[in-house]
Amino acid sequence: MHETIRRTLALLTLPALAFTAAVQTEEVRPGVLRTPDARFESLPDFPYAPNYVQVGDIRLHYIDEGPTDAETLLLIHGEPTWSYLFRKMIPVFLDAGYRVVAPDLVGFGRSDKFTDEDAYSYPMQVDYMLKVVRALDLRNATFFGQDWGGLVGLRVVAAEPDRFARVVVSNTGLPSATGFQGWIAYPLFKLAVWWEGEMTLEELAANLTFPRWVAYSYHVEDLPIGRIMGFLGGNPGVVAAYEAPFPDQRYKAAAQIMPYLVPSQLRENEEAWGVFESWDKPFLVAFTDSDPITRGGEQAFLSRVPVAQNVTIRGAGHFVQEDAGPELAGLMVDFMRGRELPDEIQADRIEP
Protein backbone atom coordinates (compact mmCIF):
# COMPACT_ATOMS: atom_id res chain seq x y z
CA MET A 1 0.00 0.00 0.00
CA HIS A 2 2.79 2.42 0.92
CA GLU A 3 4.53 1.73 -2.40
CA THR A 4 1.29 2.31 -4.35
CA ILE A 5 0.75 5.66 -2.64
CA ARG A 6 4.36 6.70 -3.29
CA ARG A 7 4.11 5.95 -6.99
CA THR A 8 0.73 7.67 -7.30
CA LEU A 9 2.14 10.84 -5.78
CA ALA A 10 5.10 10.63 -8.12
CA LEU A 11 2.74 10.56 -11.10
CA LEU A 12 1.08 13.72 -9.87
CA THR A 13 4.34 15.61 -9.50
CA LEU A 14 6.56 14.36 -12.31
CA PRO A 15 6.17 14.11 -16.07
CA ALA A 16 5.23 10.61 -17.18
CA LEU A 17 8.46 10.12 -19.08
CA ALA A 18 10.59 11.07 -16.09
CA PHE A 19 8.57 8.76 -13.89
CA THR A 20 9.07 5.83 -16.24
CA ALA A 21 12.83 6.42 -16.35
CA ALA A 22 13.01 6.61 -12.56
CA VAL A 23 11.22 3.29 -12.13
CA GLN A 24 13.40 1.62 -14.73
CA THR A 25 16.49 2.93 -12.98
CA GLU A 26 15.53 2.08 -9.41
CA GLU A 27 13.55 -1.17 -9.57
CA VAL A 28 14.99 -3.47 -12.21
CA ARG A 29 12.62 -6.28 -11.21
CA PRO A 30 10.46 -7.00 -8.18
CA GLY A 31 12.65 -7.13 -5.11
CA VAL A 32 15.79 -5.82 -6.83
CA LEU A 33 16.87 -2.17 -6.77
CA ARG A 34 19.55 -0.34 -8.71
CA THR A 35 20.91 2.93 -7.30
CA PRO A 36 20.45 5.78 -9.80
CA ASP A 37 23.68 6.88 -11.51
CA ALA A 38 23.11 10.46 -10.39
CA ARG A 39 23.92 9.40 -6.83
CA PHE A 40 27.53 8.71 -7.88
CA GLU A 41 28.29 11.90 -9.76
CA SER A 42 31.25 14.07 -8.70
CA LEU A 43 32.47 11.87 -5.85
CA PRO A 44 35.72 13.19 -4.33
CA ASP A 45 38.91 11.54 -5.65
CA PHE A 46 37.03 8.87 -7.60
CA PRO A 47 37.26 9.57 -11.35
CA TYR A 48 36.94 5.93 -12.38
CA ALA A 49 34.49 4.80 -15.04
CA PRO A 50 31.98 2.13 -14.00
CA ASN A 51 32.07 -1.33 -15.54
CA TYR A 52 29.38 -3.99 -15.27
CA VAL A 53 29.02 -7.74 -15.61
CA GLN A 54 25.67 -9.51 -15.68
CA VAL A 55 25.46 -12.59 -13.46
CA GLY A 56 22.05 -14.17 -13.88
CA ASP A 57 19.48 -11.51 -13.05
CA ILE A 58 21.94 -9.36 -11.10
CA ARG A 59 24.16 -6.63 -12.54
CA LEU A 60 27.46 -6.29 -10.69
CA HIS A 61 29.67 -3.23 -10.81
CA TYR A 62 33.45 -3.19 -10.80
CA ILE A 63 36.30 -0.74 -11.24
CA ASP A 64 38.83 -1.81 -13.89
CA GLU A 65 41.81 0.52 -14.23
CA GLY A 66 45.30 0.15 -15.65
CA PRO A 67 46.67 -1.83 -18.61
CA THR A 68 44.55 -4.87 -19.38
CA ASP A 69 47.67 -6.96 -19.93
CA ALA A 70 49.35 -5.89 -16.68
CA GLU A 71 49.59 -7.94 -13.49
CA THR A 72 46.23 -7.64 -11.74
CA LEU A 73 45.12 -6.82 -8.21
CA LEU A 74 41.67 -7.96 -7.10
CA LEU A 75 40.43 -5.74 -4.27
CA ILE A 76 37.23 -6.72 -2.45
CA HIS A 77 35.63 -4.36 0.03
CA GLY A 78 33.77 -5.09 3.26
CA GLU A 79 30.56 -3.65 4.63
CA PRO A 80 28.91 -1.17 4.71
CA THR A 81 31.37 0.16 2.13
CA TRP A 82 31.96 -0.26 -1.61
CA SER A 83 34.84 0.07 -4.09
CA TYR A 84 35.11 3.77 -3.25
CA LEU A 85 36.97 2.58 -0.14
CA PHE A 86 40.03 1.90 -2.34
CA ARG A 87 40.33 5.40 -3.79
CA LYS A 88 43.54 6.12 -1.82
CA MET A 89 45.18 2.86 -2.91
CA ILE A 90 44.30 2.69 -6.61
CA PRO A 91 46.61 5.58 -7.70
CA VAL A 92 49.59 3.90 -6.03
CA PHE A 93 48.95 0.68 -7.91
CA LEU A 94 48.39 2.45 -11.22
CA ASP A 95 51.60 4.45 -10.83
CA ALA A 96 53.41 1.16 -10.28
CA GLY A 97 52.02 -0.20 -13.57
CA TYR A 98 49.43 -2.64 -12.25
CA ARG A 99 45.84 -3.30 -13.28
CA VAL A 100 43.22 -2.86 -10.53
CA VAL A 101 39.90 -4.68 -10.44
CA ALA A 102 37.60 -3.71 -7.54
CA PRO A 103 34.05 -5.12 -7.65
CA ASP A 104 31.09 -4.14 -5.49
CA LEU A 105 29.44 -6.97 -3.59
CA VAL A 106 25.76 -7.60 -4.24
CA GLY A 107 23.81 -5.04 -2.25
CA PHE A 108 26.60 -2.47 -2.17
CA GLY A 109 27.95 0.37 -4.29
CA ARG A 110 26.68 0.37 -7.86
CA SER A 111 25.81 -3.33 -7.84
CA ASP A 112 22.15 -4.37 -7.76
CA LYS A 113 20.50 -4.72 -4.36
CA PHE A 114 17.93 -7.18 -3.06
CA THR A 115 15.35 -5.54 -0.82
CA ASP A 116 14.78 -8.70 1.24
CA GLU A 117 17.41 -9.50 3.88
CA ASP A 118 16.64 -13.20 3.45
CA ALA A 119 17.97 -13.00 -0.13
CA TYR A 120 21.49 -12.55 1.22
CA SER A 121 23.81 -15.26 2.44
CA TYR A 122 27.52 -15.83 2.81
CA PRO A 123 27.72 -18.48 0.06
CA MET A 124 25.62 -16.28 -2.25
CA GLN A 125 28.19 -13.48 -2.04
CA VAL A 126 31.01 -15.96 -2.65
CA ASP A 127 29.24 -17.38 -5.67
CA TYR A 128 28.68 -13.97 -7.27
CA MET A 129 32.30 -12.89 -6.76
CA LEU A 130 33.52 -16.22 -8.07
CA LYS A 131 31.48 -15.69 -11.22
CA VAL A 132 32.92 -12.19 -11.62
CA VAL A 133 36.47 -13.57 -11.40
CA ARG A 134 35.65 -16.22 -13.97
CA ALA A 135 33.84 -13.81 -16.27
CA LEU A 136 36.86 -11.48 -16.27
CA ASP A 137 39.15 -14.52 -16.51
CA LEU A 138 41.53 -13.11 -13.90
CA ARG A 139 44.85 -14.94 -13.74
CA ASN A 140 48.12 -14.51 -11.87
CA ALA A 141 46.24 -12.05 -9.65
CA THR A 142 47.06 -10.68 -6.22
CA PHE A 143 44.03 -10.73 -3.93
CA PHE A 144 43.45 -8.20 -1.16
CA GLY A 145 40.55 -8.41 1.27
CA GLN A 146 39.50 -6.54 4.40
CA ASP A 147 36.40 -7.07 6.55
CA TRP A 148 33.80 -9.01 4.48
CA GLY A 149 36.15 -8.66 1.51
CA GLY A 150 38.38 -11.22 3.20
CA LEU A 151 35.57 -13.58 4.20
CA VAL A 152 34.26 -13.63 0.63
CA GLY A 153 37.53 -13.30 -1.27
CA LEU A 154 39.41 -15.99 0.61
CA ARG A 155 36.67 -18.44 -0.30
CA VAL A 156 37.02 -17.35 -3.93
CA VAL A 157 40.77 -17.91 -3.78
CA ALA A 158 40.25 -21.31 -2.16
CA ALA A 159 37.87 -22.29 -4.97
CA GLU A 160 40.21 -21.08 -7.74
CA PRO A 161 43.74 -21.09 -6.25
CA ASP A 162 45.45 -21.40 -9.62
CA ARG A 163 44.14 -17.97 -10.62
CA PHE A 164 45.99 -16.25 -7.77
CA ALA A 165 49.70 -15.56 -7.34
CA ARG A 166 49.51 -13.91 -3.91
CA VAL A 167 47.17 -13.05 -1.05
CA VAL A 168 47.08 -10.00 1.23
CA VAL A 169 44.65 -9.75 4.16
CA SER A 170 43.98 -6.98 6.67
CA ASN A 171 41.43 -6.73 9.49
CA THR A 172 39.43 -9.73 8.38
CA GLY A 173 39.04 -13.41 9.16
CA LEU A 174 37.87 -16.81 8.05
CA PRO A 175 35.94 -18.11 11.09
CA SER A 176 35.74 -21.87 11.13
CA ALA A 177 34.91 -24.87 13.28
CA THR A 178 34.57 -28.63 12.95
CA GLY A 179 32.49 -31.35 14.56
CA PHE A 180 29.83 -30.45 17.11
CA GLN A 181 31.18 -26.91 17.45
CA GLY A 182 30.71 -26.41 13.74
CA TRP A 183 27.02 -27.14 14.15
CA ILE A 184 26.27 -25.33 17.42
CA ALA A 185 28.46 -22.20 17.24
CA TYR A 186 26.27 -20.19 14.88
CA PRO A 187 23.02 -20.79 16.80
CA LEU A 188 24.83 -19.75 19.97
CA PHE A 189 26.10 -16.64 18.20
CA LYS A 190 22.57 -15.70 17.17
CA LEU A 191 21.48 -16.18 20.78
CA ALA A 192 24.27 -13.82 21.89
CA VAL A 193 23.08 -11.21 19.39
CA TRP A 194 19.57 -11.50 20.76
CA TRP A 195 20.94 -11.15 24.29
CA GLU A 196 22.79 -7.94 23.37
CA GLY A 197 19.51 -6.51 22.11
CA GLU A 198 18.90 -3.09 20.69
CA MET A 199 21.22 -0.16 21.37
CA THR A 200 21.88 3.34 20.15
CA LEU A 201 24.82 4.25 17.95
CA GLU A 202 26.26 6.22 20.86
CA GLU A 203 26.09 3.14 23.10
CA LEU A 204 27.79 1.07 20.42
CA ALA A 205 30.56 3.63 19.93
CA ALA A 206 31.19 3.73 23.68
CA ASN A 207 31.86 -0.02 23.75
CA LEU A 208 32.53 -1.29 20.26
CA THR A 209 32.94 -5.05 19.98
CA PHE A 210 32.07 -7.41 17.15
CA PRO A 211 28.98 -8.96 18.86
CA ARG A 212 27.67 -5.50 19.75
CA TRP A 213 28.22 -4.27 16.19
CA VAL A 214 26.25 -7.27 14.89
CA ALA A 215 23.46 -6.65 17.38
CA TYR A 216 23.26 -2.99 16.49
CA SER A 217 23.17 -3.53 12.71
CA TYR A 218 20.66 -6.37 13.07
CA HIS A 219 18.20 -4.51 15.28
CA VAL A 220 18.43 -0.91 14.07
CA GLU A 221 15.55 0.11 11.83
CA ASP A 222 17.60 2.21 9.39
CA LEU A 223 21.38 1.75 9.45
CA PRO A 224 23.06 5.21 9.49
CA ILE A 225 25.85 4.43 7.03
CA GLY A 226 27.53 7.82 7.10
CA ARG A 227 27.66 8.07 10.89
CA ILE A 228 29.03 4.53 11.16
CA MET A 229 31.80 5.30 8.69
CA GLY A 230 32.53 8.45 10.63
CA PHE A 231 33.54 6.62 13.79
CA LEU A 232 34.95 3.47 12.14
CA GLY A 233 37.55 5.31 10.10
CA GLY A 234 35.83 7.28 7.38
CA ASN A 235 37.01 10.80 6.59
CA PRO A 236 34.07 13.10 7.48
CA GLY A 237 34.59 14.89 4.18
CA VAL A 238 33.57 11.81 2.17
CA VAL A 239 30.76 10.42 4.32
CA ALA A 240 28.27 11.31 1.56
CA ALA A 241 30.14 9.01 -0.83
CA TYR A 242 29.46 6.08 1.47
CA GLU A 243 25.81 7.05 1.73
CA ALA A 244 25.51 7.41 -2.07
CA PRO A 245 24.57 3.77 -2.80
CA PHE A 246 21.66 3.92 -0.36
CA PRO A 247 18.99 6.51 -1.28
CA ASP A 248 16.74 5.14 1.45
CA GLN A 249 16.24 2.21 3.81
CA ARG A 250 15.01 -0.14 1.06
CA TYR A 251 18.53 -0.31 -0.38
CA LYS A 252 20.23 -1.28 2.90
CA ALA A 253 19.19 -4.91 3.36
CA ALA A 254 22.70 -6.24 2.70
CA ALA A 255 24.38 -3.70 4.97
CA GLN A 256 22.02 -4.59 7.81
CA ILE A 257 22.15 -8.40 7.59
CA MET A 258 25.72 -9.18 6.51
CA PRO A 259 27.31 -8.78 9.98
CA TYR A 260 24.80 -11.33 11.31
CA LEU A 261 26.02 -13.86 8.70
CA VAL A 262 29.75 -13.75 9.54
CA PRO A 263 29.84 -17.11 11.44
CA SER A 264 27.24 -18.81 9.24
CA GLN A 265 29.73 -20.93 7.23
CA LEU A 266 32.03 -22.36 9.89
CA ARG A 267 32.32 -25.88 8.47
CA GLU A 268 32.64 -24.66 4.89
CA ASN A 269 35.34 -22.20 5.92
CA GLU A 270 37.25 -25.00 7.60
CA GLU A 271 37.38 -26.73 4.22
CA ALA A 272 38.78 -23.53 2.68
CA TRP A 273 41.47 -23.44 5.36
CA GLY A 274 42.74 -26.71 3.90
CA VAL A 275 43.84 -24.76 0.81
CA PHE A 276 45.68 -22.13 2.83
CA GLU A 277 47.34 -24.60 5.18
CA SER A 278 49.16 -25.97 2.14
CA TRP A 279 49.60 -22.57 0.46
CA ASP A 280 53.12 -22.16 -0.97
CA LYS A 281 52.75 -18.78 -2.67
CA PRO A 282 53.34 -15.37 -1.04
CA PHE A 283 50.81 -14.51 1.69
CA LEU A 284 50.91 -11.19 3.58
CA VAL A 285 49.09 -10.47 6.83
CA ALA A 286 48.84 -6.69 7.40
CA PHE A 287 46.49 -5.99 10.30
CA THR A 288 46.26 -2.66 12.10
CA ASP A 289 47.00 -2.10 15.77
CA SER A 290 43.79 -0.22 16.59
CA ASP A 291 40.86 -2.27 15.30
CA PRO A 292 38.37 -3.31 18.01
CA ILE A 293 36.49 -5.52 15.54
CA THR A 294 39.25 -7.91 14.43
CA ARG A 295 41.91 -7.40 17.12
CA GLY A 296 44.03 -10.56 17.37
CA GLY A 297 42.57 -12.07 14.21
CA GLU A 298 45.95 -12.08 12.48
CA GLN A 299 47.03 -14.99 14.67
CA ALA A 300 44.83 -17.46 12.81
CA PHE A 301 46.55 -16.63 9.53
CA LEU A 302 50.03 -16.62 11.04
CA SER A 303 49.51 -20.01 12.67
CA ARG A 304 47.70 -21.76 9.82
CA VAL A 305 49.36 -20.39 6.66
CA PRO A 306 52.93 -21.74 6.60
CA VAL A 307 54.38 -18.99 4.39
CA ALA A 308 52.54 -16.05 5.98
CA GLN A 309 54.49 -12.84 6.51
CA ASN A 310 53.35 -10.35 9.13
CA VAL A 311 53.50 -6.53 9.02
CA THR A 312 51.65 -4.43 11.60
CA ILE A 313 50.15 -1.11 10.52
CA ARG A 314 50.44 1.32 13.41
CA GLY A 315 47.96 4.13 14.01
CA ALA A 316 45.12 2.77 11.88
CA GLY A 317 41.68 1.44 12.76
CA HIS A 318 39.23 -0.95 11.17
CA PHE A 319 39.08 0.61 7.72
CA VAL A 320 42.78 0.52 6.97
CA GLN A 321 42.08 1.74 3.43
CA GLU A 322 40.89 5.03 4.90
CA ASP A 323 43.48 5.41 7.64
CA ALA A 324 46.54 4.12 5.78
CA GLY A 325 45.55 3.56 2.15
CA PRO A 326 48.71 4.88 0.44
CA GLU A 327 50.97 3.27 3.02
CA LEU A 328 49.26 -0.11 2.66
CA ALA A 329 49.32 0.12 -1.14
CA GLY A 330 53.04 0.92 -1.08
CA LEU A 331 53.64 -2.05 1.21
CA MET A 332 51.72 -4.28 -1.17
CA VAL A 333 53.78 -3.09 -4.16
CA ASP A 334 56.96 -3.99 -2.26
CA PHE A 335 55.43 -7.36 -1.38
CA MET A 336 54.45 -8.07 -4.99
CA ARG A 337 57.94 -7.22 -6.17
CA GLY A 338 59.57 -9.52 -3.65
CA ARG A 339 61.26 -6.80 -1.63
CA GLU A 340 62.16 -7.21 2.03
CA LEU A 341 59.34 -6.00 4.26
CA PRO A 342 59.53 -4.20 7.62
CA ASP A 343 57.93 -5.57 10.77
CA GLU A 344 55.63 -2.55 10.90
CA ILE A 345 54.65 0.61 9.08
CA GLN A 346 53.07 3.81 10.36
CA ALA A 347 49.80 5.30 9.12
CA ASP A 348 50.12 8.94 8.12
CA ARG A 349 46.37 9.70 8.53
CA ILE A 350 46.83 13.21 7.21
CA GLU A 351 43.91 13.95 4.90
CA PRO A 352 44.59 15.85 1.64
Features:
about 15% strand; 13 strands; 8-stranded mixed β-sheet; alpha/beta; single chain
Can you walk through the features of this model?
By secondary structure, the chain is α/β, with parallel strands linked by helices. Helices cover 41% and strands 16% of the residues. The protein is built from 14 helices and 13 strands. It has helices at residues 2-13, 16-26, 90-95, 122-136, 148-159, 179-196, 201-206, 210-219, 225-232, 239-243, 253-257, 266-276, 298-304, 320-336; strands at residues 27-29, 32-33, 51-55, 58-65, 72-76, 99-103, 113-114, 141-146, 164-170, 283-285, 308-310, 312-314, 344-346. Strands 3-4-6-5-8-9-10-11 form an eight-stranded mixed beta sheet, with helices on both faces. Strands 1-2-7 form a three-stranded antiparallel beta sheet. It has a two-stranded parallel sheet with strand order 12-13. The radius of gyration is 20 Å and the shape is globular. Residues 1-24 have low confidence and may be disordered.
Helix and strand topology:
Layout: H1 2-13, H2 16-26, E1 27-29, E2 32-33, E3 51-55, E4 58-65, E5 72-76, H3 90-95, E6 99-103, E7 113-114, H4 122-136, E8 141-146, H5 148-159, E9 164-170, H6 179-196, H7 201-206, H8 210-219, H9 225-232, H10 239-243, H11 253-257, H12 266-276, E10 283-285, H13 298-304, E11 308-310, E12 312-314, H14 320-336, E13 344-346
Parallel strand pairs: 5-6, 5-8, 8-9, 9-10, 10-11, 12-13
Antiparallel strand pairs: 1-2, 2-7, 3-4, 4-6
Helix pairs in contact: 4-5, 5-12, 6-8
Number of strands: 13
Unreliable parts? 1-24
Biggest pleated-sheet summary: 8 strands, mixed
Q: What number is the mean pLDDT? A: 90
* Beta-strand share of residues: 15-25%
Distance between the termini: 47 Å
Figure out the total of helices: 14
N-to-C series of helices and strands: HHEEEEEHEEHEHEHHHHHHHEHEEHE
Strand line-up across the major sheet: 3-4-6-5-8-9-10-11
Structural class: alpha/beta
Share of helix, binned: 40-55%
Shape field: globular
- Cα-atom radius of gyration: 20 Å
